[in-house]
Amino acid sequence: GENVEQHPSTLSVQEGDSAVIKCTYSDSASNYFPWYKQELGKGPQLIIDIRSNVGEKKDQRIAVTLNKTAKHFSLHITETQPEDSAVYFCAASDLGGGADGLTFGKGTHLIIQP
Amino acid sequence: SQTIHQWPATLVQPVGSPLSLECTVEGTSNPNLYWYRQAAGRGLQLLFYSVGIGQISSEVPQNLSASRPQDRQFILSSKKLLLSDSGFYLCAWAYRVSTDTQYFGPGTRLTVL
């Protein structure tokens, strides 16, 4: 089955700096890679996703890059703000591979220092 | 638009008591439904998923069970809670076809004493 590794487990950056979170996956059949943001005491919320037919996707201050050859993908947050502080999860899936769906990384606690 | 509800939001139960957590989805039909547990720390553990009424797949053998009595209702149950059942329980839904994007509910914080 799929295995997703996520690094780092904790990331502290100064407000205004950039943050990068990296994930690797094991199943070459995986073709869908979402990122979720979880604030304290709340459910995870989808913030961006990418499919294997593109290498990069941007949405304002966040972007995701995908390297299918190396089987890794990354979340980039620029101009970080205090409200970016949260736990971020990456995930991978083989679309159409079954209803059990996503395999999640263990999460990264992003701390934005004022 | 679609919305997902979970209740209760918080629950404190004694060891050995029963459990029933409910999840309902509005605004879509025939969704895939999921139950996850998030224990101390951050990982998401898939417990059960369902592709239709009465159809339940278990990912982890344990003290819990799930049922789907209606198309947009998913219930997580236990006959006798253990201390190790404490955690944050999340329900999620996904469209039946074309995407694996999962949308999560607000969660239930369960504390077993």
List keywords for this structure.
heterodimer; A: 114 residues; mainly beta; six-stranded mixed β-sheet; five-stranded antiparallel β-sheet; 54% strand; globular; B: 113 residues; seven-stranded mixed β-sheet; 0% helix
SS elements, strand count of chain B: 11
Q: What's the overall average pLDDT of chain A, rounded?
A: 93
- State the oligomer: heterodimer
Class based on secondary structure composition and strand pairing of chain A: mainly beta
Distance between the termini of chain A: 41 Å
Order of helices and strands of chain B: EEEEEEEEEEE
**The biggest beta sheet of chain B, please?**
7 strands, mixed
**DSSP strand content of chain A:** over 45%
- List low-confidence stretches of chain B: none
Helical residues, percent of chain A: under 10%
Name the average pLDDT of chain B: 92
Q: How can the largest sheet of chain A be summarized?
A: 6 strands, mixed
Count of extended strands of chain A: 11
Number of helices of chain A: 0
Biggest interface, CB < 8 A: A-B, 23 and 25 residues
What's the quick description here?
Chain A is built from no helices and eleven strands. Chain A has strands at 4-7, 10-14, 19-25, 32-38, 45-51, 56-59, 62-67, 72-77, 86-92, 103-104, 108-113.
How are the secondary structure elements laid out?
The complex is a heterodimer of chains A (114) and B (113).
Chain A: E1 4-7, E2 10-14, E3 19-25, E4 32-38, E5 45-51, E6 56-59, E7 62-67, E8 72-77, E9 86-92, E10 103-104, E11 108-113
Parallel strand pairs in A: 2-11
Antiparallel strand pairs in A: 1-3, 3-8, 4-5, 4-9, 6-7, 7-8, 9-10, 9-11
Chain B: E1 3-7, E2 10-13, E3 19-26, E4 32-38, E5 45-52, E6 55-58, E7 65-70, E8 73-78, E9 87-94, E10 103-104, E11 108-112
Parallel strand pairs in B: 2-11
Antiparallel strand pairs in B: 1-3, 3-8, 4-5, 4-9, 5-6, 7-8, 9-10, 9-11
